[in-house]
Write a structure and sequence with these properties.
globular; Aminopeptidase; single chain; 104 residues; alpha+beta
């Protein structure tokens, strides 16, 4: 598994599609509801499996002061239970520390 930020528009399109599919579609939310006003200032990470398919996503953004918030974590249903979400969370926490955040 590789965890990194989406590198181009195509990868971001896949990233947002996965967020919508896992987090919004089951609740009959429209496409577009998987985004908010913090997207441009956030750290976006995705997990790719050994075949090169994006299988998980997560986002960190700064709140007030040295606080951060992790949101929009999603793992492909067929890939759940394999530690992908845990690995994404650990990397997002590491990025928070690197950005000087002391509370998430």
């Amino acid at each position: 598994m590789i965890i990194r930020s989406p590198a181009d528009d195509s990868e971001f399109e896949t990233y947002y599609a996965l967020r919508w599919k896992v987090l919004r579609a089951p609740w009959n939310q429209p496409p577009g509801s998987e985004k908010d006003e913090f997207e441009g200032n956030a750290i976006h990470l995705a997990a790719w499996n050994n075949s090169g398919k994006m299988v998980g996503v997560g986002r960190l953004h700064r709140m007030a002061g040295r606080q951060g918030q992790i949101r929009y974590m999603a793992v492909e249903p067929v890939a759940q239970g394999r530690g992908i979400g845990k690995a994404l969370l650990e990397e997002l926490e590491l990025r928070a520390v690197q950005e000087g955040m002391i509370e998430i």
